[in-house]
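During the second year of the project, the team shifted from modelling isolated chains to modelling whole assemblies. The rationale, set out in the original proposal, was that interfaces cannot be judged from single-chain predictions alone. As a representative example for this report, we include one of the complexes processed in the last quarter. Its constituent sequences, exactly as entered into the pipeline, are reproduced here:
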Amino acid sequence: MNFTLQIWRQKNQNSEGQFATYGVQDIPPDASFLEMLDVLNTDLVKRGEEPVAFDHDCREGICGSCGLMINGRAHGPNRGAATCEVRMRSFQDGETIAVEPWRAKPFPIIKDLMVDRTALDRIMQAGGYVSVRTGGAPDASAIPIPRMVAEEAMDAAACIGCGACVATCKNGSAMLFVAAKVSQLALLPQGKAEREMRVERMVAQMDAEGFGACSNTYACEVECPKEISVSHIARLNREYIRAKVL
Amino acid sequence: MKLDSKIPDGPIEKKWDNHRFALKLVNAANKRKYTIVVVGTGLAGASAAASLAELGYDVISLSYHESPRRAHSIAAQGGINAPKNYSNDGDSVYRLFYDTVKGGDYRAREANVYRLAEVSGAIIDQCVAQGVPFAREYGGLLDNRSFGGAQVSRTFYARGQTGQQLLLGAYSALCRQMDAGKVKFFPRREMLDLVVADGQARGVIARNMVTGKLETYSGHAVVLATGGYGNTWYLSTMAKASNATAIWRAYKRGALFGNPCFTQIHPTCIPQSGSFQSKLTLMSESLRNDGRIWVPKKKGEKRRPEDIPENERDYYLERMYPSFGNLVPRDVASRRAKEMCDNGFGVGPTSMAVYLDFSDAIKRNGKKWIEEKYGNLFDMYHEITAEDPYKTAMRIYPAVHYTMGGLWVDYNLMSTIPGLYVIGEANFSDHGANRLGASALMQGLADGYFILPYTIGDYLATASFKPVNTEEGSFKQVRAEVDARIKKLLSIKGKRTADEFHRALGKVMWDHVGMGRTKAGLQKALTMIPGIREEFWKDVNVVGSSDDLNMELERAGRVIDFLELGELVARDALYRNESCGGHFREEYQSDGEAKRNDKEYCYVAAWEFTGDDSNPKMHKEPLTFEYVKPSTRSYK
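Output from the structure prediction step:
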């Protein structure tokens, strides 16, 4: 398969970026999107040019490193898949594909397609945990947790922290990301002791980082590679109101 | 050099208790005066950094990722073992210990393995308290499954994402300590060398991967939690960035490397589909609980698997190993798959695959049941191969997955360099010649949560430390050496990319230092690898500059270290004239089963670096078995 790529190139955070056009030829349909970029990068290096910088690591959809806007969609055309899981058979032969980095104010561009998502880490540091010391835990089966509750907590915990929800949101909101953690820990008995403080601190940090507000477009759920439901945002809102009222 | 494993005296079930009591403590008020540099934030690194900070130490944590949560522990799927005996099937600490020593083919230290089994229960307690959503039964209690060759159900799991959930648990503990200011985390920093001053590990030189600047991190001890070296084979299930530079640099600074040839080839990976491929994808071997492995009885069979009638299929594992069947240990399952393909029974477009078939399980329990258990794995397979495993048999083939070898450590997890600790997959540790399923997560977290935090205190309390100046002496010298290496890589301006050299190395490693090894093949590898290395230094092309984000420079530095390490793996494999666990020397077998030689090879091979132009020197740590008497592993 052959493709024309329009890729965002930007030297660093302070420089101005622009689209560059490249062609790639003879790409097997089974190649992943990132393997197609590998082919392009090998060509570029052979020509003495700098390869296109992008984040990636596990290439099996779990580490959350990769994240590209492909033809204007976070992680490309497939539902429930991260960029690394997209195969070239999802595109038409001869297609022109636009490739951009995540665009959101709290995610400054580092280089080309690589952005700085440490804002998400700082939100997690603002209480996205249960305060438990190593060694101080009771027996694992001491507190029974109904299976349905554990399963729902697991649905939320599946978040890979890729930032697609932010990138696709017209407000640049991180609500789905924050909701996934707040919801997981609010559902489980282990997280209940700190639930008020947690939700207040995490939301405050989200605001401080410059993420936008949620206006219920549900775009985040559509693009989330782990298909995390917006119902967790509803639980986040409830937790927040509950914390403010109590 | 005399290797002292520091295994405590006394009966095995008392060793760790007695040892913990004997360890010197650092006064609570003094802990904050000690700085510990922890490299890596996977299960071992994150759990260690968090636990050390909770104790009061000042912790510096480094990762080449943007966030601790991206470490490759995240990709582990299947589960984590603990002998809680929640299934009432007769499990115990002793049984897990026994299984692990036997599974490792009697090439691990009994005392280490016993300790691992002993602390594993507390890991589950710890993770549950953090909010890790392990699978539960309807009554609300924790569910267990049997996994990878175990005859009891002792594996705890969180769907097919156990590694992710455990890592996010450790990451949350780390976040809490970052929040408290006790851990200073530096993202996108790649450790490029170890600094040893006055005979003690005192810090590291790391490259800021965004600005390109070389930075110095110093402390009273250094902990490497930097994972395994599976990417030496190029195609593996490791993440793309996973590399051996940290442990390799430490080796070149004096840390001994233990059992480099002990590597694990995992049986249930998605087969390679073309030369463009950048990595292989593993599917949890929990699939073997319900999937049946087979090949057609006829060579070169072209029919679709569902069109081949039952009596024309060879369920070879069930045939050869009636009692373990499809659940034989990984090394056996992998070797048999290779053998089937080598003999012409392989399937799929490349004929380098065997079937893993769920049709019986779907008939027996329904599609929904399979979906609940393996849904994400089936989706992943479908996405990658464009084939629906609910309708047609999966194709699988073995791939390099884990390295049991690593830096040699004593019972305290300290390497042969005082103050340098190595934890998780990076050390040679507890798995002997073969690791059992669901034991990697267990070991990473055991080291990080429950072992290192005790043992490192003894060193800090008893060693004496001179003040270090990072602008002078060893620090200055090592930094200059790192800088010179980077400049050298950039100056060659040849014609081939680092990746091309990596692929060339990978091919030699897979062909000659892979699943079936021979004396002739290993000797060939030992002449080919130095040849590739020589070519690399003449003809590699690293574009870009050192003072910028430069992916090609990062890769070149890693590849050249693989090119040195690969040679040591081959050398160790050649030296070990026996077959054991994942190390299969074709000359040493009986009826196709590995033939160990306990009389001559019951030891840990610990290799010492003696210089770039001389061969490494091997030291032996003899292994003794007082409790689990070595026998031939039989899964028939």
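Chain A touches chain B through 80 residues (CB under 8 Å). The helical segments of chain A are 33-46, 118-125, 147-157, 164-168, 175-187, 195-208, 219-223, 231-245.
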